[in-house]
Amino acid sequence: MNQSGIYFYAVIGIAVTFATCYFFYKILKSPGKLAKGTSGWGTRVGLVLAMAGNAVGLGNFLRFPVQAINNGGGAFIIPYLVCFLLIGVPLLFVEWSMGRFGGTPYAGRPYGDHNIPFMLHRLHPARWVKYIGVFGIFTNIAVAAYYCYIESWTMSYVYHSLIGTFKGLSQSEVSIFFDHYTDIFYTTTGLPFEAVIFYVLCLVLNVYILSKGLEKGVEKVAKIGMPLLILFGALLAIQALTLKPGQHGATFAGTEGLKYLWTPDFTSIWKPSVWIAAAGQIFFTLAVGMGTIQCFSSYLRKDDDTALNAMSAGWMNEFVEIVLGSAIIIPITVGYLGIEGMTEIAKNLGGYGLGFRTLPYLFQQWGPVLSVLAGVMWFGLLFFAGVTSSLAMGTPILSFLKDEFKIPFSRGAWVFGLITLIMGIPTVVFYNQGVFAEYDDWAGTYSLVIFAFVEIMLFAWFFGMPRAWAEITRGADIKVPTIFRYIIQYITPVLLGWILITNLPGMVNRVIHPSSGYATFAQIYLLALFIFIMYWVYKAYRNRLNGIS
Asked: How many CB atoms sit inside 10 A of residue 182's CB?
């Protein structure tokens, strides 16, 4: 195989690393430009790391490499980066500045609004606008419900790596272990309902951290978790890329996997499906369209920077995804199973098949000590990627409860945990029956696109582009290129509208022709949550009219 893939990875990797270091260096040069003595963030670095942690998730390591393989290899990075610049960056600017605007004080609200429904209501006074903000609460609860389940897998697999569960197991036995684990009636530790136990433990941990607030909870975890995630990822990437034939039983060099992943197939670049996949990956990886970014940035002051913060967090996510995410599971798997073995697993079982069914077996080839360290680092970095994201999902709900019902974070966290548990148990119990996948599509895909399209239309057209641009550029520590004014107003809405339209047939088909009764149950269950949140928002609005909130 030629070296073009290596060269392409090197060029893109260097460019992304440079951008990441440049923006973060500028953050470090002015780390103290944040409000002090509030219920918000302690430091600017902590905010940026928390925002990056919100974006960096399991998909950076499990979804991105498989998406690239299935969509032209290195050629996928071209539409991916175009979508990052035309959809991702504009939405980052919009959501950061929208959140800061929402959090500024105004008559009757001396602390501003830190929740999505009433942030949107400030953009336009029409009554229906605040109900669009229901998506910003619904999505986070519904996604957290199943996302915490994956997060709990990483906790369990760290434990099993430490106690040597995978030692001596064949590749098929390690794969079967995953099947048994996700079937709650099997037990791999002797504990009944093991998957449920780890899921509840994961939720309790999230709730406890959230109850400590932003500075002492979310920010503190981000300051510890993000550096460890990058360190573990870098160590595993080095081990993967230096893997040689014959070393630890490897058949091929790890770089063969990198070549395969990054060698461009330019014939695929003209396929609309590749561009749809690239745009979808941008949504998935940057956590735009969820409402978490607005909530985090709502705790900034009126003239605090949002532009540099947005770029620093956004490019840090790209570094983790492009530079580290593509340099671990594919190179290691190809090193042992070859390109055909890796592609078969990736196409049939996806990222979970590589990350949970395959790597634990491959790590065992590295010897008794290194295999444990590799397992702990791999599943540890996945855990940190997961927990920093799930904590972000809880914050919009806690902020809504605090703003509208005077419930402090310390108690609101437990409300969030209880609702998430009620919504999440079906994804655990009926994982193999498709409930998990139904949640993922409706909350983790369709809901994001709908909300992102409506929010940018509200911000650019109803709020008005002159005011919107003033919000984006006010207090900016970098010069925001003027071209983004026109991209935000014209190009990004068109692209988001196109993505929404292409998703509509799938949405309708899933309702009319559900894959099973379990899928119908999941849809009704999610609809009930949406209606409940609508009532919540209505109740909050009535409280405001009556002067209660």
From this structure: 17
